[in-house]
Amino acid sequence: MALLGLFTSFLPAEILNAVGLTSTILPTLLLQITGALYLGFALMNWMAKTLLIGGIYSRPVCIGNFLHFTIAALALIKVAMNHPSLNYVLIATIIYSLFAILFGVVLFTSPKKM
I want to staple 42 with a disulfide (CB 3.0 to 4.6 A). Which of 2, 36, 57, 82 is the partner? Predict the structure, then answer.
């Protein structure tokens, strides 16, 4: 998340050009805002890394991550089904789906301290 946030925050025009989109003001701004969200999530997750996720104190962290990855995975699945030739979308779909499943397991099971 941190790497994706850094790249989209500071290189939005280059990313848009790399995927064949025109880097006008609105798409560039939306990509930078998305980058800020990713950086915020990365920092939140980093600060909560020592907490027992899934308990009552870290439940908001878990729910935020679960919602983010689930909604993004569903959107990516839709695009991947309509455009199977886009390999980068397929890779992102697999990664997001995996994280959605893992955060779902953490959210809906009892936490265990290791």
Answer: 2
Q: How far apart are CA 28 and CA 35, in angstroms?
A: 11
Find out whether 76 and 92 touch, Cβ atoms under 8 Å: yes
User: Across the chain, what does the average pLDDT equal?
Assistant: 90
- For residue 91, the one-letter residue type is I
pLDDT at 114 over 60: no
Calculate ∠ Cα 9-61-110, nearest 5°. Answer: 145
- What token pair was written down for 46? 């980093």
pLDDT digits (tens, 9 = 90+) for 61-72: 999 999 999 999
Distance of CA 85 to the CA centre of its chain: 22
**Domain locations in the chain as residue ranges:** 1-47, 51-114
Q: How far apart are alpha carbons 55 and 76 in whole angstroms?
A: 29
